[in-house]
Amino acid sequence: MTKAEVRKRYLDLRKKLTPDEIESLSLGIANQFLRLPIWDMKYFHVFLPIRSKNEVDTEFLLTLLQGKDKEVVLSRSDFESHQMHHFLLTDSTRIIVNEYGIPEPEDGIEVPPNKIEAVIVPLLAFDANGQRIGYGKGFYDRFLSDCNSNVLKIGVSFYDISDSWEDVLPTDIALDFCVTPENVFDFRQV
């Protein structure tokens, strides 16, 4: 299989999910997060879901992290440079939806990537080696390469492990964990 084939398969699966299913599965993912060895960390990067693509609803994770007094960092994407800029989520953060349907902070207190300790990574599919497939623009691979080498990369998925694909690139950065509604997959020893 190729990334394009896997991407299409999981986009089609997600299209079939109802809002109630997305809410239930997303809550299951948040509950599984309690099993991760992350609670001594302070700075967590979280994505906000693209509703039209039926992504994992991270509101439950945001509530969990804020309830544990963690600092939450959100990103704004620059589609010219394919870079992400990171901002601390505060009470005064204003979220806007960009032309691609991505909710982002308008501005705020910028946070350098090397300060972030854990990144919750959106994805379409992941395999038994912790490789992930996103939308194919490379934003997260570039962002993760700017973080410290010990940053924890935590994927979230409605679905369990996919078959592997043949076109893994040297620039693809593998996950440390992937959390699904039923499981926590640990790839640190793979």
TrEMBL record:
Give the residues the record marks as binding ATP: K3, A4, E5, V6, R7, R132, I133, G134, Y135, G136, K137, G138, F139, Y140
Q: Which residues bind substrate?
A: L48, E55
User: What protein family does this chain belong to?
Assistant: Belongs to the 5-formyltetrahydrofolate cyclo-ligase family.
Keyword entries, A-Z: ATP-binding, Ligase, Magnesium, Metal-binding, Nucleotide-binding
| One Pfam family recorded for the sequence | 5-FTHF_cyc-lig
Q: What class of enzyme is it?
A: ligase
Quote the catalytic activity from the record: (6S)-5-formyl-5,6,7,8-tetrahydrofolate + ATP = (6R)-5,10-methenyltetrahydrofolate + ADP + phosphate
E.C. numbers? 6.3.3.2
**Organism ancestry:** Bacteria, Pseudomonadati, Bacteroidota, Flavobacteriia, Flavobacteriales
Name the needed cofactors: Mg(2+)
Protein name in UniProt? 5-formyltetrahydrofolate cyclo-ligase
